[in-house]
UniProtKB/TrEMBL annotation:
The Cytochrome c domain, residue ranges: 16-138
Keyword Nucleus: no
Secreted recorded as keyword: no
Ranges in a coiled coil: none
Keywords: Heme, Iron, Metal-binding
Name listed for the protein in its UniProt record: Thioredoxin fold domain-containing protein
Length: 262
């Protein structure tokens, strides 16, 4: 029995492929499920605008991937990826064949906005490739849209920055630093350069690095700046200041800063 299970797992992984799954999703699912929309914009849409901002009738692709892989209703054990892909495969086949809101893994708060899904049949091969697509979605999205750290020079354009933030539905995280700042270098090395931190920033923020010895802070922040580096400013997508955080921060506290402004 153990040998048979190992054999089945091996066959599953040999046939599974992220790109194949993406093609299946694009051909069979993308007409209903929209592409990536930042979670900050999704939160605004559902929790502040009652879905009147985006008028979504189905969850976006990143909402599906998050629900399957990271939510409280996530499928399978993250420490056992071989078994997890099979559990996701089985869930997809069962749910698509008989869509039932009571069996959905989406956030209960947003389900009321969705239209009834029609049954859909997929093959075992399609299901396993879709499972792989969702399992590797976040990693591949980050590879295709790497962390953008904008180091502002004297010629930056505030209107262009605001346009970018509004199009992406992201806040600004403005980082006041200087070349002579010891604690800036320490925090960069121990916190800002960490892949986990860069992913969290890139999900919800446009990160602007400003060397205050040479470049003026954007959005009239000079009036709020007390001269301490590092200092972090969090602003809305419209350039409105939400919070100011002077000083260097350890990883745990910096993650809380990122969370509390969303």
């Amino acid at each position: 029995m153990k040998f048979l299970l190992s054999f089945l797992l091996m066959i599953t992984f040999l046939n599974a492929d992220y790109n194949e799954g993406k093609e299946i999703f694009d051909n069979k699912c993308a007409s209903c499920h929209k592409g990536y929309i930042s979670f900050s914009k999704l939160k605004e849409n559902y929790f502040q605008r009652n879905n009147e901002l985006l008028n979504l009738e189905m969850p976006t692709v990143n909402m599906l991937a998050w629900a399957i892989m990271e939510s409280s209703r996530k499928i399978g054990d993250p420490s056992d990826p071989e078994m997890r892909v099979i559990e996701i495969e089985e869930y997809l086949k069962e749910y698509l064949a008989n869509p039932d809101i009571n069996n959905s893994i989406c956030d209960a708060h947003v389900l009321k906005y969705y239209k009834k899904k029609e049954p859909m049949s997929i093959s075992d091969e399609e299901a396993v490739n879709l499972a792989y697509f969702f399992m590797e979605y976040k990693e591949n999205r980050l590879k295709s849209t790497p962390q953008k750290i904008k180091v502002l020079d004297k010629k930056y354009n505030e209107k262009e920055l605001l346009k970018e933030a509004q199009e992406q539905g992201k806040h600004f995280l403005v980082y006041a630093t200087s070349q002579s700042c010891y604690f800036c270098k320490k925090m960069k090395r121990e916190v800002l350069d960490l892949e986990e931190i860069q992913e969290k920033i890139n999900d919800d923020y446009i990160f602007l690095e400003v060397d205050v010895d040479f470049v003026t802070l954007p959005f009239n922040l000079k009036k709020k700046f007390k001269g301490m580096t590092p200092t972090f400013f969090v602003l809305t997508q419209d350039g409105v200041l939400l919070n100011t955080y002077p000083g260097a921060w350890v990883k745990k506290d910096f993650i809380e800063i990122l969370k509390e402004n969303l």
